[in-house]
Design goal:
This protein has 73 residues and is mainly α. The chain contains one helix and no strands. The model has no long low-confidence stretch (mean pLDDT 95).
């Protein structure tokens, strides 16, 4: 290929642009997928934190009841 051939240079540039466009599309798709995963993980984390807080409250209530029973005996 003659490096001074404008038609060849234009063709090579067109190929590179197409490759960049495809790479951009793949990265955009991957980015969208990662954002969805992040959102799902944040929702799951929030739910787990709420469950943890409920469990902690129940355990504290049981401890309080046990201490109360212990004092009354």
């Amino acid at each position: 290929m003659d490096s001074f051939d404008p038609a060849a240079q234009l063709q090579a540039l067109a190929v590179r642009i197409e490759l960049l466009f495809e790479r951009n599309q793949r990265l955009a798709d991957e980015n969208r997928s990662l954002r969805q995963q992040q959102e799902q993980l944040m929702t799951e984390r929030s739910q787990l934190l709420a469950k943890n807080e409920q469990a902690r409250s129940r355990v504290e209530a049981m401890i309080t009841r046990l201490k109360s029973l212990e004092q009354h005996t």
